[in-house]
Specification:
This protein has about 120 residues and is an all-alpha fold. It contains 3 helices and no strands. The protein has helices at about 1-65, 70-95, 100-125. The radius of gyration is 37 Å and the shape is rod-shaped.
């Protein structure tokens, strides 16, 4: 009777070893998943914080615009962009025309600078 139970006991011991190995594997997988989840949570918190800061900055800019306090920094930026566009347009137009020489291009640039200075002075004051 003992001889008949030996193979069954060996089979049970083998199954027990496999179950223990599987338990270790599952524990490692759960720990890895938990670690990944924590890292992902940190990343999402950082992204949320970044978006929250951006939202606050946008609200502040909208408040400045709505109260009119923003003109101090908006006007020079707008004038600079306008100057750049006008200068680029004038130079491109002058270069396309073969009748205009270098002196004409310099004259256009000087006129644009003088005009933009007058506009800037007018907008600031």
């Amino acid at each position: 009777m003992i001889k008949e139970e030996v193979p069954k006991n060996l089979a049970l011991v083998g199954e027990l070893d496999e179950a223990r190995e599987r338990e270790v594997q599952l524990t490692e997988e759960m720990e890895l998943l938990l670690m990944n989840q924590q890292e992902e949570q940190i990343q999402w918190q950082g992204k949320f914080s970044q978006l929250h800061q951006e939202q606050n900055r946008t609200r502040e800019e909208l408040e400045l615009i709505s109260t009119g306090k923003s003109w101090n920094w908006l006007v020079p930026m707008y004038v600079n962009q306008l100057e750049d566009r006008l200068a680029n347009y004038a130079i491109a137009r002058a270069l396309k025309s073969t009748t205009l020489g270098c002196a004409a291009i310099l004259g256009l640039c000087s006129a644009l600078i003088a005009h933009s200075s007058r506009v800037m002075h007018h907008l600031v004051w």
